[in-house]
Amino acid sequence: MNSVLRSSRVLTDGYIQPADVVIRHGFIEKVAPFKSQKNAYDLGQRLIVPGFVDLHSDAVEKEIEPRPGAHFPIASALVELDKKLTMAGITTMFHAVGFNDAAITGYRATKIAAHVIEEINTANRHLLGVDNFVHARFEVTSFESVGVIKELIHNESVHLLSVMDHTPGQGQFKSIENWKKFHLPVYKLSDSDADEIIRHKIRGRSRAFAVVEELLRYGAEHDLVLLSHDDDSRHKIDLLKEFGVSISEFPLDVDIAVYAKKKGIATGMGAPNVVRGESQSGNVSARKLIVENACDFLCSDYHPSSMLQAPYTAHREIGLSLERCFDMVTSTPARLAGLNDRGEIRAGKIADLVVIEDANIPKVILTLKEGSPVYNGTACLCGE
Questions:
Q1: I want to staple 289 with a disulfide (CB 3.0 to 4.6 A). Which of 118, 184, 250, 294 is the partner?
Q2: Which residues are in the Amidohydrolase-related domain (predicted)?
């Protein structure tokens, strides 16, 4: 589909400026001077930005199982979520699929996670409007899942790989009480069950070091981008850097995030944290990291629509330029994921574009994937 989008506010070359965006065969052919093209869809003062690139979202879990025990077919759940992503301006999604301890989730859980990943890849080829990729998350004591993850990596079914450690007493869960507060209701555990699981995890940590190293090296051999999760110490950052990790998700305090960046590791936080002004789990505010220049990108975590609201919140509450705020959900995550074909409005890039009406509460009114509308809430049909 060939078309021209015109606006007095286009995010290109690092600035919001007037421009005509020329689209041909799914790519941006050129960013031309404002009103230089004879025929164009004039969007007035509506903001045109690159499509959002989301490196970590758990939203697929709630789409498959919106209430405990109420499971929906995975393929139809993915189609419905895909529609929501288009309305949120997300054109590249990495679904974060967790491989957790069998002691918590049951031994079938590894097979279920693998099945979800295969369903995502199948749907992405045939059914979905935006790019739906896989971010596999490995819990460090989920030893039974290592072989399954390796097979998925070998089959090119995984696109990002991260490691996480939810052992109580460190990381996200500083105390056993906090660990139980989260896990008992989510996994329907009794207090005695929880105590046994905690003992299992603590015993398994001595073995986890070698397993994590093995899996991360396997991922690196297959050219995957490697991430860590909930980092809470300089020692952990140093160790993960040695293993090839290049991104730290949700570092637990400002000092650790600053140290990670000094070591050449990028840092990312949740967009909902920015919008709400605090962490849902009681950890550090993403706004604090942004103020200290210790947050490179934002991901939706569990709330896709926050990818639109977070840049405006950061601009309003912190005073960052709107250009810098949108970089955190577009060009920076694209670059960190090795997706050099998207994330910017410039010649040669894929025409993944989002049009935003932001006179009041910002809302997406048009989303283009490879130049074609996948969500359209305007009179602009772009190609009719």
A1: 294
A2: 261-371
